[in-house]
Amino acid sequence: MNLFYRKFGEGEPLFILHGLFGSSDNWVTIGKQFMHRFQVVIVDMRNHGQSPHSEQMDYQSMATDIYELANNLRLKQINLLGHSMGGKTGMTIAEQYPGLIKKLIVADISPRKYPIRHHQIIDGLLSIDLKNIESRKEADVKLADFVPEYSVRQFLLKNLERDAEKAFKWKLNLEVINNRLEDVGASTIPKTKIETPTLFIRGINSNYVTDDDIMEIRKYFFNSRVESIGNAGHWLHAEQPEAFINTILEFLEY
Q1: CA–CA separation, 132 and 136 (whole Å)
Q2: Does the active-site annotation cover 234?
Q3: Counting beta carbons within 10 angstroms of the beta carbon of residue 219, is it exposed (0 to 12), middle (13 to 18) or buried (19 or more)?
Q4: Among 20, 101, 137, 184, which is most exposed with the fewest C-beta within 10 angstroms?
Q5: Could you confirm whether 84 is annotated as catalytic?
């Protein structure tokens, strides 16, 4: 699959993979903080952003997408930063394509299986009648019945765009995402120990990576460490960007 990506900077390649409902556009500000040291490649994952849609949404498929992109860019080895779904994709790559990743950063996700989440968000997005709204404001008002947090709604509504006829449409493949939520929460616990140097970063206010998860992480990721960022939840890169960036740079430059 030919994924859409944004590229800037020079040096060692650093791929950035967003999470569910995200896109490369959400990571440009963060990505540019690394361009003085790295060739930054920010990817739209399948069924997101400007990348193609597919009926498949499993981690093996998404890992293969990134492997193929690295090959197309003639890169034999990359560093990889993945948030949430992107982090699980990175873990899968480390197992399925050993040697491709020089250093792996996993942001606020563990390899365990997660219960199905986000049904309310999907329901909210699907409830918006795109044929009968004239502005993002109208979409926001409708979505507020399902998603009370303004910042989350603004993040989600970045997926709304106009087509050639100026009608609204979703960049997201909402139907497939809705049908594949179990795949998004699937376990990425490797069958063999991973020796890739790996940094797991968690938001201290998030419940995505628990103390028990850290014990499990160390069983499978032989050469890993875990850092916690204070006053941050699951969206730690948006809530504490300076601490997030500095933690990653320290790891990559060590």
Answers
A1: 12
A2: yes
A3: exposed
A4: 137
A5: yes
Task: Show the domains of the chain with their CATH numbers.
Answer: 5-112+188-253 (3.40.50.1820), 119-179 (no CATH)
Interatomic CA distance for residues 82 and 46, integer angstroms: 14
- In contact, 68 and 91? CB cutoff 8 Å: no
- The pLDDT of 78-84, averaged and rounded, is 98
Q: Determine whether 119 is an active site residue.
A: no
Q: Write the pLDDT tens digit of every residue in 189-230.
A: 999 999 999 999 999 999 999 999 999 999 999 999 999 999
d(CA 32, CA 24): 12
* Catalytic hit among 23, 24, 51, 84: 84
With cut-offs at 50, 70 and 90, classify the pLDDT of residue 116.
Answer: confident
Q: Which of 53, 54, 61, 175 is catalytic?
A: 175
